[in-house]
Amino acid sequence: MRPCIQAAASSLRNLGVLCVSALFFFFALHSSSKPLARTQQEAASFRGDSQEEADRKSAGCISCHTSTDEATMHPTKTVRLGCTDCHGGNSSIAITSGIAPNSPEYDSAKEKAHVQPRNAVFKNRSNLPERVYTLWLKESAEYIRFVNPGDLRVAPETCGTLGCHAAETRAISTSMMTHAGFLWGAALYNNGEYPAKNTRFGESYNREGLPQSIKTSPRPTTEETRTKGVIPELDPLYRWEISQPGNVLRVFERGGRKKAEIGNPSREEDPGKPDDKLSDRGFGTELRTAPVFLGLQKTRLLDPILSLPGTNDHPGDYRGSGCSACHVVYANDRDAAYSGAHAQFGHSGFSTPSDPTIPKSESGHPIKHAFTRSIPSSQCMICHIHPGTNMVATYFGLTWWDNEIDGDKMYPKEQRNPTEEQRYQSFLRNPEGAAARGLWDDEKFLENTGSAEFNKQLKTTQFADFHGHGWVFRFVFNHDRKGNWLDKDGKPIAFDDPDRFRKAVHLADIHLEKGMQCNDCHFAQDNHGNGKIYGEPRAAVEIDCTDCHGTIRKKATLVTSGPAAPESPTPGGERGRHLGALRTPWGLRRFEWRDDKLYQRSMSEEDKEWEIVQTIDTITPANVHFNMKSLRAKLLNKDGIVPSQIPADDASLAHANSSMTCYSCHTSWTPTCLGCHLQMTANARKPMLHNEGLPTKNYTSYNFQVLRDDIYMLGVDGTVTGHRIAPARSSCAVLVSSQNANREWLYYTQQTISAPGFSGQAFSTFVPHTVRARETKQCSDCHVSTQNDNNAWMAQLLLQGTNFMNFMGRHIYVATGNKGFEAVAVAEHDEPEAVYGSDLQRIAYPDNYKTFVDHGRQLHAAAEHSGNVLDIQARGEYAYAANGTGGLRIYDIANIDNKGFSEKITTSPVSPIGQRFFVPTKNALAVASPTTLGVDPLRQQLPENEEQPVHLLYGFLYVADKEEGLVIIGDPNLKSKSPGVGTLLDGNPANNFLKRALAFNPNDLLSGARRISIAGNYAYILTDKSLVVVDLDNPLVPRVTATIGAPALNDPRGIAVQFRYAFVADRDGLKVLDVTDLARPKPVANALVPLEDARNVYVARTYAYVSGGKQGLAIVDVEKPDAPRLDQLFTAGGQLNDVNDVKIGMVAASAFAFVADGKNGLRVLQIVSPWDDPAHFSGFNPRPMPKLIATARTRGPALAISKGIDRDRAVDESGNQLAVFGRRGARPLNRAETASLYLRNGQLYTVTDEPVERPLGIPTAWLDRIRSWFFPSATNGAR
Hints:
Layout: H1 11-30, H2 51-56, H3 59-65, H4 83-87, H5 104-113, H6 141-147, H7 166-172, H8 176-179, H9 181-190, E1 214-215, H10 222-228, E2 230-231, E3 233-234, H11 291-298, H12 324-327, H13 336-339, H14 377-381, H15 391-395, E4 398-400, H16 420-429, H17 443-448, H18 452-455, E5 473-475, H19 500-503, H20 510-514, H21 524-528, E6 533-534, H22 545-549, E7 591-594, E8 597-601, E9 609-612, H23 615-618, H24 628-635, E10 672-681, E11 686-687, E12 695-696, E13 699-708, E14 713-716, E15 725-739, E16 745-751, E17 759-765, H25 791-797, E18 811-815, E19 821-825, H26 839-844, H27 846-854, E20 862-865, E21 871-875, E22 878-882, E23 888-892, E24 918-919, E25 924-928, E26 957-961, E27 965-969, E28 996-1000, E29 1011-1015, E30 1018-1022, E31 1027-1031, E32 1039-1044, E33 1054-1058, E34 1061-1066, E35 1069-1074, E36 1082-1090, E37 1096-1100, E38 1103-1107, E39 1113-1117, E40 1125-1130, E41 1141-1147, E42 1150-1156, E43 1162-1168, E44 1187-1192, E45 1200-1201, E46 1219-1221, H28 1231-1235, E47 1239-1240, E48 1243-1244, H29 1262-1270, E49 1272-1273, E50 1277-1278
Parallel strand pairs: 10-15, 17-46
Antiparallel strand pairs: 1-3, 2-6, 4-5, 7-8, 8-9, 10-13, 11-12, 14-15, 15-16, 15-17, 18-19, 18-45, 19-20, 21-22, 22-23, 23-24, 25-26, 26-27, 27-28, 29-30, 30-31, 31-32, 33-34, 34-35, 35-36, 37-38, 38-39, 39-40, 41-42, 42-43, 43-44, 47-48, 49-50
Helix pairs in contact: 1-3
């Protein structure tokens, strides 16, 4: 709100602030979805004071302030309040005419009239200081009431008094907008630090500003918690000092010595081998604690929330606390679409009051001293800004900027090398590490970023006008899968068209385009809560799409039916709230039926209204809203037939509302945030942002990695929301690093494992808020296309991953044969982690880039280890290596970035007696980890978390041995404490002894095994003669399901599986297998791309990257897998001439190929970039444009590259879940659900996006005809 009161004799102003609270609840009451009990005139006096009494309580205030916008802050004039009713203070103190402002007499009177703060930072100012955080909690309740009566600490005494807004005040105190428990719960559970999925922690403070627990009263039953998501209680976040790590990386293991005193180093420490263990005692002692508990206290995520005022330092950060946070509007955004009528006031938090004591050119003031129910969406965005892929940003058609697109306008021309003080100041404003190197670290620069003038200079995007947290948001424009921008008619726009931004379709939600602000859909209860504590955001929502749009059977009832819709007070009564009773601020009905059409009036603009199209109208042929595609989608039966009449229930419908959400189809795009690097550093003393606000020496920066808008994914929604099919996204998929006080990296970009054992590369089902009419999902977005051109898209849709956006890390692990292997540093250590020689390095690190180019683009920083490494896979803190006759060996790479260790890679940190990480085999040629993600099948799962088990096959490693066939690595005793290879994850260094489960080579079928790839429950093993498919559903009882040899395959050498196809590199070139039935692949006739020297293959989205030996890198277009075609042979002018392997990953907006080029070493190629192909890079399958940017001369021939982390893979091809989901009961689709999208009676069926259109008013037999026009056939595809 406006703490302006405190400044220059703000008596009157205090009055306004005080009224803030009272008014807020008045409006909240009127925006409630309850029917109005009386008219505004009848409710005219909420307080019993006479006007004379109210004037007396304001007299002294007005003597200074003279006038104000709304004396009571209630524009309706329906209450009589004096300034001190809300603000407190002493209204008997007045100044006489003739006393000059800022004179000693004036200042003395002001000090007596105003409640004085304890902290000098609040003294003598009329606006809130920037970033006050917990300083606010240390002030007295009297002072807080004085500057903002709407603050939650005092709201029960102001807004919540009898006759005002008591119910809303009670409700908001337990609302998730106050406690934010959903974020803390997800962060702790997803990263393995707390075992319960129902959140246990939330933020709340009592009148004195002390942390407090909150409870739901009456306490919910177990069933209510399970089905409604109501949480019994929340506690303040535990002190990090008593927490225990859930991810026991090597530094958290037992074995440390007693820690040295500060300034007195230990004489016992071995040179080149520091004691990096975090405690010499048990969990929860010294630094053997959970980093997440500390990070949540200190890193700004969605902080601050309602208990605290906004940071008031950037456009998009200006607001008060409590009730005033919403009902008192600040100038945050100049775009009228988001701010409505408030856009005219700018975005710098300036005020336009009639009160002369309020400076009009000082940020941090509300626009006016008045409450409003017409809350603009820009006010919502202040809190709903994290993550930058959240629903308010997407509703606006925006997403986080990725630190690269149009980056030449965002980084300084001369390289910025920030000092520690500059980093400290930067982190105060923006938790992102890259900001310190960029121009957007400057508040003045951000003031102009997003303006029309600034956006004119951009080539590939446009920026938004608000910058909460110091962040930058970019527009999302409609484009096809190739990356071509499309106009409103779906036609491509030339990239060199100077008018392209005007022609392009900005993918804001259609509801926003109609004029709807957030509170036009989310009514009083959604905003205030209902007094119950919820652990999931959507569990607290009472509105559902059908409440306004109706269903295929009836028009809208205007009764809420969402998860939090009110229960009937009488058993068996109607559930929900009647929306027909709602009124606008001007007293008109918000919803009104006219001529059988439903209209809604705006809460922000008196004369604005729009029609709400009814679902049933879109399938009624004679209706003006009839749409053939809508009819096709809504009435299609599971057997592919449209019934002659609308069925009575949903059981037979393929797309029933009871089994899938409306927005599974009605979504134009979804945001993708793949990976967030949480980098904790010591020697960075900062205060906590919550609770006591105590300072500690560690700080965690927040660095998003890959941000795109080109993919779409589906999952199964949570229990509270009905287990329906819903869009899914990657969210809070973190990688963690930690630097100690000696600036040694104890671990760097390590994965986390969630509480139930799934990978911490988390996903969640969600409501995208990106509804569009034309630009919405089509049939082939979720089903196999008749053209068979969406195999990669389907793999992405089903969360199986596409190998394109993988995280390769700073070090690339290269197998070099008899010279062992090397870990080559290929990227900057600082944020952004630009690859050496890339365009991102050129713009973010121009000096470093120039030096690198001047030195021949050679990579020199590398760690190595001897051996005979023929194949390698790094995962977590270990690298698995196939060492030929040396068998399988696991190397410890935990200290690869630790400058204190002279030996970065070891076979054992102790003697071989204490650890044995090798398993003898006769001739190990290849090794396969079943996933690159960190999963742990051994973790205990609580039944109430409603999780699926982690499949047992993920507890073992798999080796292709030339003589022994398939060798399965791991303890076969499932009753042991660490079956499989669980010893690598259990945190116990005393049991680090690998075992061999079995060797499998029936009838020598697997002799000559040379390559192995895991796809679902199956191992695809290549021998020198054939492909052998081995079923690993029970990894201790493997069985062969299929063999494909000559003539279909000729000396097969490499294989990659993507959804329904496998791609094999053999002596003839690249061939294709149909693996619709994973157990029984079938050769695809005539699917061959001849190549002279194909050695391996890697498939990323719609391109197969074939290691072509002397031909270099062969890039094959496999958009249509049954008709592959050679796109290009890339040799960089003959430099790539011994290519053995390739892997691909992304950094920011660019994709890179890391190539094992035999005798030439490691090559790094930039293959997709906004700088090389700005017209297409943002598409799902842009054409690669490779260029050689770096080379590392390895000691031996580069034979193999370790694959990166599959950041977009949440489930395998057999439906086994790999990554944790963020809603209780939510999960990826299982195998049966996946198959239902493209198989019918075991046969493939396909779809087309273009039904045959018919004129309106078609005869009654139209439904029968439609069947023959366009519906899928189980045998012939779409007809």
